[in-house]
Amino acid sequence: MTEDYLKAVAVIKGVAEAPRKAAIVASLVRNRTVADAIIILENTPRHAAQPVKKAIESAKANLLEKGSIDSTSIILSKISVTTGTRMRRYKPASRGRALPFEKVSSNILVEVAGMKKVKKPTPQVKAQKADKENK
User: Fold this and answer.
1) Residues 9, 111: Cα–Cα separation, whole Å
2) Which of 22, 55, 84, 135 is surrounded by the most beta carbons within 10 Å?
3) Where are the beta strands (DSSP E) in the chain?
């Protein structure tokens, strides 16, 4: 049965969003079909919804490029958000001081799986099989 499914992955690195906030958006669409996930993310009023949607669309495009896939059967098999690189910066403060802070980023990994299309035999192939059986 595993031969009937194809998988594809998309990774977006360095998204300028806190991983905790992006993980909340990712949990909204976990274990859903890609079509449902895109509709949910289009109507989600969070900043992290756009990069998560782009990652899902990219993974879907990667899967459709691999082979003949039934586009209605594509599901999100895995979606995770991890911490990205942190840029250390300083903010000027009173009396000549400098207060450190970090600009956080996150990495989004999306894995989608889809069922292969079943190829229907053409009438010529059916006729050839029937001829072989009759002989």
Assistant:
1) 4
2) 22
3) 5-15, 75-83, 87-92, 98-103, 106-115
